[in-house]
Amino acid sequence: MSTATFSAPVELDWFGCDLRTGQIIEDLRSLKPSGPLTKRLGAATSTSFDLGIAGAGQDWIAATDPGRSLLVGVDRLTDQPVWAGMVLTRDAGSSWTATLGVTTPEAYLDRRYTGDVTQLQQDQAAVLTALMAAPLSQGPPFIMDAPATGVLMDYMALDGDDRTVLSALQEVMGQEGGPEWTVDVAWSDAAHSGFVLPVRVRPAIGVQITDPEAVFDFPGCISTYMLSESYESGKGATAVVARGEGEGTARLSSGSQVATDLEAAGWPRYVHRYTPASGLTDPAQLTAHAVKALALMKTGARVWAIEAVASQAPRLGRDWGIGDSIRVAVGSSPRHPEGTEIVARAWSWELDAAADRIAPVLIEED
Q1: 273 shares a domain with 219
Q2: Are residues 11 and 95 in the same domain?
Q3: Which residue of 69, 228, 326, 358 is most buried, as measured by CB atoms within 10 A?
Q4: Helix-strand-coil percent breakdown of the chain, rounded to 5?
Q5: ∠ at Cα 25 (21, 26), nearest 5°?
Q6: Three-state SS for 188?
Q7: How many helices and strands in the chain, by DSSP H and E?
Q8: pLDDT digits over 157-174, tens only?
Q9: How far is 101 from 246, CA to CA, in rounded Å?
Q10: 323 and 221, same structural domain?
Q11: Could you read off the pLDDT of 80-130 as tens digits, one per residue?
């Protein structure tokens, strides 16, 4: 619950590190994000930073070198690294401020390719580890945190498919029963000399429980919230078909996956056809994608966009993180005059420490 336990400002200490090793080059005391920090499950996000050169430190050039450096923000209160991003652009000249374009490490996976990968009846975690073989070599300080999921699968990729590691990981995650993954950041050692980037693979990232301790309340720590409900095209469907590449009769397709329970209860049929990933040639994989898509879409999307006072809310990185269950408790509002309580998963978040603002995006799951 949002109580005085959490009433401390979110102040981040920023470090510029070597992208290959994760070792700290410089404590960048004058570095400030010019927008909110964001994180999304299984995807890359970006933001920009302003660096005051006068107070940047002696090695600020090496610590912000595009393509060679990693920025890491650490919560001063908890000593917990909460965000990391690779510097891709740097603009600096006669001004005393340098502007940096930074993206989370997931984006690096879109710059490496799978090569030839054949995994037959292997655990899902082993498949994702095999797909990570290229970026684990000559890449950032990724380390695999991928215990066996207990679910076997087949996967094949050919080097000639030019499939990036990011697209392959997202493809596997998108299948029915597919594992979830994310790239975290952690201290590399007890001396806090640098950082590593754990690639976490689980059946579901985070902790999903029916009675989570992290509670965002309104009135309370929540400033504003919006519950978005949609049955628009691409968000709601009672019948889903996943299509492969090609044309006409040569185009592979899953069978139509139908929410027969909803249609029997009186729902009209809404059909969604889509191509889940490039290069899919296995009808079984297409069917797996269609089954998962139907499970997500059959009752439409219910997404809670919350803005809360960060210093009053459950602490990011300590009390909750990406993929975790979070409780929303509404006493009374125009949308919920009688109040409501729900539990939903954090699929993404934004943190604007300077504005004392935390904004998780929560998705209700059946």
Answers
A1: no
A2: yes
A3: 358
A4: 15, 40, 40
A5: 150
A6: coil
A7: 6, 23
A8: 999 989 999 999 999 998
A9: 38
A10: yes
A11: 999 999 999 999 999 999 999 999 999 999 999 999 999 999 999 999 999
